[in-house]
Write a structure and sequence with these properties.
Elements lengths: L1 H11 L21 E6 L5 E3 L11 H12 L7 H9 L6 H11 L3 H14 L11 H12 L7 H12 L4 H5 L10 E3 L23 E2 L3 E3 L11 E7 L2 E6 H7 L1 E6 L2 E8 L4 E2 L1 E3 L10 E8 L2 E6 L5 E3 L4 E2 L11 E2 L2 E4 H7 L4 E3 L38 E6 L5 E5 H9 L5 E2 L2 E6 L2 E5 L5 E2 L1 E5 H7 L4 E2 L3
Parallel strand pairs: 4-8, 7-18, 20-26
Antiparallel strand pairs: 1-2, 3-12, 5-18, 6-7, 6-17, 8-9, 9-10, 9-11, 11-16, 12-13, 13-14, 14-15, 19-20, 19-25, 21-22, 22-23, 23-24
Helix pairs in contact: 2-3, 3-5, 4-5, 4-6, 4-7
């Protein structure tokens, strides 16, 4: 399916027939220096930012940019792409990044990468061509380069050529979307109606709506050491097997009398539960958009077409803009430990109620070695893929607990507490409570994800 989607994109965005520059691009004299305090997710230093232009674009920049964008869907002249680099306006690098996302490994992509080197002066001679888009975008995010004037309009023309279903997100000109951070996740939008059990014809990640569930005793099909995401609402518990969540990445379900959506961002290692029955009218129906924001999946509401910051649960556009969804806790643990601690739990049926044969390991460890999409610079206090339990304390302070260390301490009888948040064991996983003993919503995630969406978070250390 992904191979077919890639073919569709290539056909839509026809590569340039004009030969690109041969050999290595002669970059201008290196003018940047290394800032050791800024590193990428691979531990490599990120150079200091070059000088950033201000004000309107020059006539030369506008002319080159329009020449490239007018040719989208036909044949792009790489000389016009090169002309963007000649402007020296680093703000235009965001558009070079967007071209690289779809043209990496082709003449247009090579020209975009060379233009980035030309306009910034960074030395990227050793960068693998398969990583050009990620390196360029990591730098732009880390440098916090402002978007060029008219950026959203240019991005709209490119992205809606690939997926017209993204048009409503661009139509809201008052949205809180930072389009610099939005990238294509490799799939198209899931716009199927609630309850649709058919796969996406064009290649989306299909949400699982109201899956069939069985009692714990009938969950023998799932191994005791298999990972589940455990949810308890109003005293009713349910386990969602990781292998099923890796296929669907979104569930809409009812538990304890509450309606909720549960996105699972495999790239961030984060399963979250958002209560969707807290708005007037029908509960929200959450879907995967096919877009990413700094490696975090971007979800949206099917009825209102409102885009959400998935990690924060805040609507960024549409009629719901500004709405912050209430979250419930998710406990990441094993099926054996969860059903022992919660014997009345249910578990999603082996076929999800859809007659599907789910692989044991759908992703094959894809995300074990660090982010595969751009995230900018990272917080070096922990390894990027270390699992933390992230909590926003009652006073609004963000705190994170390395899960393995916290669980070990609790098993030894030690107290795990920070900023008014206390952790307790639950079925081999951990839950968060405030100083009065009331439960606080919390979920696990990779450290790079929690720390970038909650910069300056306080970190518990044993």
């Amino acid at each position: 399916m992904l191979g077919r989607l890639f073919l569709v994109v290539v056909l839509l965005l026809v590569s340039c027939s004009t030969p690109g520059p041969e050999g290595e691009t002669a970059a201008r004299e290196q003018t940047t220096t290394t800032a050791p305090e800024m590193i990428d997710s691979d531990g490599n230093p990120i150079p200091q930012a070059p000088e950033i232009a201000e004000g309107p674009l020059s006539s030369e920049a506008t002319g080159a940019l329009d020449a490239v964008w007018d040719a989208l869907g036909t044949t792009i002249d790489v000389e016009h792409v090169a002309a963007l680099g000649d402007t020296g306006d680093v703000r235009l690098a965001w558009l070079l990044s967007d071209l690289l996302r779809f043209f990496q490994g082709r003449e247009v992509g090579t020209a975009a990468f060379d233009a980035f080197v030309e306009m910034t002066g960074v030395d990227l001679a050793n960068a693998s061509s398969t990583r050009h888009w990620r390196v360029v975008t990591d730098y732009l995010i880390a440098w916090d380069v402002p978007a060029p004037p008219g950026y959203a309009t240019y991005k709209e023309a490119l992205y809606t050529l690939v997926e017209p279903g993204w048009q409503p997100f661009f139509d809201d000109t008052d949205a809180d979307i930072d389009w610099r951070w939005i990238s294509w996740g490799g799939v198209l939008i899931d716009d199927r109606p609630l309850g649709d059990v058919e796969p996406c014809a064009e290649g989306c990640i299909p949400a699982l709506d109201d899956p069939r569930v069985v009692a714990a005793g009938l969950g023998f099909w799932y191994p005791d050491d298999g990972i589940v995401f455990g949810v308890t609402i109003n005293g009713e518990s349910r386990a969602y097997p990781k292998n099923i969540m890796e296929v669907h990445e979104m569930v809409n379900d009812t538990l304890g009398g509450r309606r909720f959506g549960m996105p699972y961002c495999t790239l961030c290692g984060a399963a979250q539960v958002f209560l969707t029955d807290t708005v007037d009218g029908d509960p929200l129906v959450l879907r995967t958009s096919g877009l990413l924001s700094r490696s975090n999946k971007v979800m949206y509401d099917l009825a209102t077409e409102s885009m959400f910051d998935t990690f924060l649960g805040v609507a960024l556009s549409g009629p719901l803009q500004g709405l912050a969804l209430e979250q419930a806790s998710v406990v990441t643990t094993t099926w054996g430990e969860w059903k022992t601690e919660h014997p009345e739990t249910t578990i999603v049926a082996k076929d999800g109620g859809r007659g599907i044969e789910y692989p044991d390991d759908p992703l094959g460890g894809r995300d074990d070695n660090g982010p595969i999409f751009p995230v900018g610079d990272v917080d070096p206090r922990l390894p990027v893929q270390e699992q933390v339990l992230g909590v926003v304390a009652p006073d609004g302070v963000s705190v994170a607990f390395p899960v393995a260390a916290a669980r070990s301490a609790l098993e030894e009888g030690a107290e795990v507490r920070l900023a008014g948040v206390e952790l307790r064991l639950d079925a081999g996983g951990v839950r968060a409570f405030d100083e009065s003993g009331a439960a606080i919503s919390a979920h696990q995630a990779f450290w790079f994800a929690w720390s970038q969406f909650h910069p300056g978070t306080e970190l518990w250390e044993r």
